[in-house]
Design a protein that fits this description.
The structure is a single chain. It contains 15 helices and 16 strands. It is an alpha+beta fold and 466 residues long. The protein has three domains: 201 residues, Hen1, N-terminal domain (c-terminal autoproteolytic domain of nucleoporin nup98), CATH 3.30.1610; 48 residues; 198 residues, Rossmann fold, CATH 3.40.50.150. It has a seven-stranded antiparallel beta sheet with strand order 2-3-4-1-5-7-6. Strand 2 and strand 3 form a beta hairpin. Helix 3 runs antiparallel to helix 6, helix 6 packs across helix 8 and helix 7 packs parallel to helix 9. It is globular, with a radius of gyration of 23 Å. It starts with a strand and ends in a 5-residue tail after the last strand. About 5% of the residues have low confidence. Its cofactor is Mg(2+).
Amino acid sequence: MVLFTLTATATGGFPDASDLGYLLHKHPDRVQTFELSVGTATVLYPESSQSSCTVAMILDVDPVELARSKFRRGSDGFALGQYVNDRPYAGSSMLAVAISRVFKSALAGTLASRQELPLTALPLRVTIPAMPARGGADLPRRLFGPLGWDVIAEPLPLDETIPQWGDSAYVSLTLVGTLTLSAALRHLYVLLPVLDDVKHYWVGEEEADKLVRMAGEWLSGHPEAELIASRYLAHRRELVASVVDRLVEDTTLETGDVPVVNAGLANRRQDAVIATLEDLGVARVVDVGCGEGKMLRELLTRPAFTKIVGVDVSDSALRRAERRLGLAELSDRQRERISVLQSSATYRDPRLRGYDAVVLMEVIEHVDESRLPALVRSVFADMHPRVVLVTTPNSEYNVLYPNLEPGTFRHPDHRFEFSRRQFEDWAGEITSAHGYDVSFTGIGDVDETHGAPTQMAVFIRREVSA
């Protein structure tokens, strides 16, 4: 079995360590079990008090099921190595996947009920008793150190009874640092497979997308960026090259001729939206303003979303979305799950009725304010889904962009940008008129005065009793 523990301790900014349970969406008084493709993950809390809280995840890998996977990769990929290997006992890409599945909301940094918690830096301690470090015991420090962790990597002997045999390729890994929980989990998700230099599943373009989403904020400036990208992407040069190109593109958001530094914010926005949809049990989704289909592609990889529709007013953007999604090459079953439609958020479209959720991610600010009432009628009255998610820039944050002139918008196509108060007032009018409740959260690095760069409203339709 593979053991992973994470401990939070109380500080002035985080006075109750047991709030870790809220952040992880896992109650400290319960033992929970999750079925994964490679085995079973069990989550429990060895301790939970105001001063210190520890969550433990035990990953019980099924070696027979693992051996059946035709996508097995690694130095032990020979016939006997499929059955006799370290996978059931040491940290690996399987642990990283378990973290992403079991703690998906914490990974995305979303928590509707206590919005300040995901943005709070916590004193954290991570332990993995057996972790491959293929590259030497110093490799964990080279990978995690630049990200703000104090690293203790103690080499494990090949055989404690025969010291002359020396050390193995494994370490007992401890990480100590003060970070947001989302950042800590993202570091682990990306770097554990890099330490191991083995992935238990096929690595394709989807993995390149994940790397940009999870590490886009810090990878380009990391001293081991080349090693990280190469190992994470199973040494596939074409994928590594595509990630490098996209990181360069994502580091600036053009505002006329003025670049506004905005690394990784789009990825965090998408992750927050998808995690919220999953938390709310949504199955049928309309992505209004889908553009070239970046979020559609990620939704398609998640079986929980049984029907996905991308909507955009631009025919050329939809054609690019079709190519990104590879619609022509999808199986019939997958093709039934997803479609793209040309339409506008400000006009009623009967094809968009009857879905569980509608997403407007960075859409409303591209609509003339005089047309917002038409958008509201179209989405909340005509489509009338159970859930509506709206993200938009927080105009108060603009003063923190050094190259953005006062009074200008982040993008030349923006018609307006709401302050937090304006956004809440606009959303409040919708709840009164159309029978929804709303909660708000910030996305991105938060400033004590100006808030987060992106603000998100989560509308949930009130159920009308018979």
